[in-house]
Structure formats: C-alpha cells, structure tokens
Amino acid sequence: MTTSDVAQDAKKAPAKDPWELPDVSGLVVGVLGGTGDQGRGLAYRLAKAGQQVIIGSRAAERAQAAAGELGLGIEGAGNAECARRSDIVIVAVPWDGHAKTLEGLREELAGKIVVDCVNPLGFDKKGAYALKPEEGSAAEQAAALLPDSRVTAAFHHLSAVLLQDPEIEAIDTDVMVLGEARADTDVVQALAGRIPGMRGVFAGRLRNAHQVESLVANLISVNRRYKAHAGLRVTDV
Asked: What pTM was computed for the model?
C-alpha cells in the first residue's frame, strides 16, 4: 500500500475521531540525510517500530555504512534511489544543503508525501537563533521546489541524542504536524505514533511552519541551561 492509497482511503472515510488515524505500517520510509544525527535517530526509531526504512545520502556508500551500523533491516542508498523506492520521504538534511538537495530530486519525489523536518538556524556567541527563508520557512521552500509533491512538516523538536540511545525505550514528546491536506497530515501523525511515547498532533497549514521550526532555537537554550534533552507536550488534547 502506498501513501496515495492510504490518503485516498482517508478522504473517502466519513467524519471521524481526530485521533483515528490510518494504518501506515506497510509504508516504506525514506530518510534523506539519514547519515546525520537526526536522520539516523529517526531511521533507527522507525525501523525499531517495525517500519521498513531506507537511508539516503549523496554518497550511497555512506548511506550503506550507516545502515549497516544501525541494523534492524535498514537499507542504504543514494538520495535518488532512496526517494524512488520510498512511499513517504523525511527530509533531514542540513539547512545549507536543503534547497540544492530537493531541486535535484523533484522527479523522484513527485506524488509522494514529503516530511520536512529541517530547522533553519544560525549560531553566534549569544547562541542559536532562527533564520527566516525567503519563502517563509524550510517547509514552504520545500513546497515551492516540489510542486508535484505533498509537502508536510514534522519531527522538528526531537533530540537526536535520545533518538539514537538504545537504552531509551520511549520518546516522551509530541510531534507537531503541518500540511495542506488533512489526509496527508493524518498519515504523518500516524507515522509519528509508531514510535513508542510519541504522538503526532495536527498544528495547522504550512504557512505556520516558521514558528514551529524557530522554536528549536528556544529548545536549544533550554537544553544548554538545564543540561537536558527537552521536547514538547501539547496539553488538553
């Protein structure tokens, strides 16, 4: 079953409980930038939850090496092959390579749910601060570069340290999910919910992605002050 099948089923369904989400267990998840800390952590957690995962990198051999280190049946491939073979693709590349990576994968990502989790940040002697792309956010830049893809935004506020720690069974956090089509955000919420302790929460359209991406700068300050790996919880939902 592809993401299109899952989304079409969701569109046909009558109004339902907002926490009634589609079954995404059969989807292949690609992680572009899967050799970086956040990408590796997401790949590890999703594979551990039973998802089929492919790590992508500019160099296929680097992806294959990272996949071999992680185990759990994770595969490694070049970015283009990763995008082609995956049903849903998480973008976890560094901000300075974001636009160039996506521009080169427009054809391979056409028709697919693309989950952008990139946080445009700058750093100086005062610490981390948010950058604002010309398009408004990293997710909106992705949507502009990938007009034939179904771009969403999620997984911004996760600690790479916690994601990669095999001693930690559950990740105690909510994932804010943004996108233009509710059927697509439902799929991403369901994917987040595959990871023990994690919950996907719908947080609006892509025009609201900038403040979600920017909040990471505040979390970095929290973590430095309290020597923690802070996440987020949305209360009363």
From this structure: 0.92
